[in-house]
# Entry
Amino acid sequence: MGAESRQPLGLALIGHGKMGRAVEQIAPARGFEVRLVLDEDSNRDGAGIVPEQFRGVNVCIEFTTPGVVLDNIRHVAALGCNLVVGTTGWTGHLDEVRGIVDRTGIGIVYGPNFSIGAQLFFRAAEQAARVFAGFPMYEPYITEMHHRFKKDAPSGTALELKGRIQPALGDREITIGSVRAGYVPGVHELGFDSEADSVILRHTARGRQGFAEGALYAAQWVMGKKGLFAFADLFAA
Ligand SMILES: NC(=O)c1ccc[n+]([C@@H]2O[C@H](COP(=O)([O-])OP(=O)(O)OC[C@H]3O[C@@H](n4cnc5c(N)ncnc54)[C@H](OP(=O)(O)O)[C@@H]3O)[C@@H](O)[C@H]2O)c1
# Structure
C-alpha cells in the first residue's frame, strides 16, 4: 500500500483516543482521506453514525471501548459500510456480530493485535517449529517483556504464539517467561536451545504505529468483501 496515484479512500474514524489518533496520523500516506472523526461527545448513543455524515466514506475504523463497540458496529452495519474493529473485549458477542454481518451483507475485520509484524512472526514461528520438531536436542521456549504497567502475564501474544507452535512440537513442553519492567512496548522471543548453540526468533514492537499500520492494511483489504474476518485470517498460508 502506498500513496499511489489512485483516488484516496474515504475513511471514518470512530474513536479519537490513542489509537484513533495514531491511525489519523498515517492514513494520508497510506492512500486514505479522513472524512469523519467521531469521539464520545459527537457519537453519543451512535448519534454520529448517520447517512448525512457518512457521505464520501468508503470504510470505517473503530477503536473505542468495549461498552460502545457493539452499538457502533450495529449503526455502521445499518449504513452498509464495511469496517475494521480494533476495540478489544467484546468477542463474547461474536455470534451476535456474525448475525449482523449476515443480515446486512457488510464486511468486518476484527482482532486484538493488528501488528502486521506480529502476524508474520507467528507464521515464521510455525515454520521454525516444524523445522526444529525433528531435533529434540533443541528445547523450545518463549520469553516476553513489557512495561511495568501491563497487568496480565503471560501476554496474549505469548499465549497465541505457544498455541501456534504446539501442534508442530507435539507434547513437548514450551515454557514461557515474563518480565515486567520499565517502558518496553513489547518484545517476544521464541528460542530453541541446545547444549551446543541457540537459535532465537524475536519480534520487537516499537509502539502504536504498528497497530495503526495494520488497521489501515485491513481497511484496504476489506473493501468490497462480505463476511466476518479475523485479522490473522489475512495472513493465513
Ligand atoms: N487491535 C489492536 O491491535 C489494538 C491495539 C491497541 C489498542 N486496542 C484496543 O483499542 C481500543 C481503544 O484503544 P485506545 O488506546 O485508543 O484507547 P483510548 O485512548 O482510551 O481511546 C478510546 C476512545 O474512544 C472514545 N469513545 C468512547 N465512546 C465513544 C463513542 N460512543 N463513539 C466514539 N468514540 C468513543 C473515547 O472518547 P473520549 O476520549 O471522549 O472518552 C476515547 O477517545 C481498546 O479496546 C484497546 O484495547 C487494540
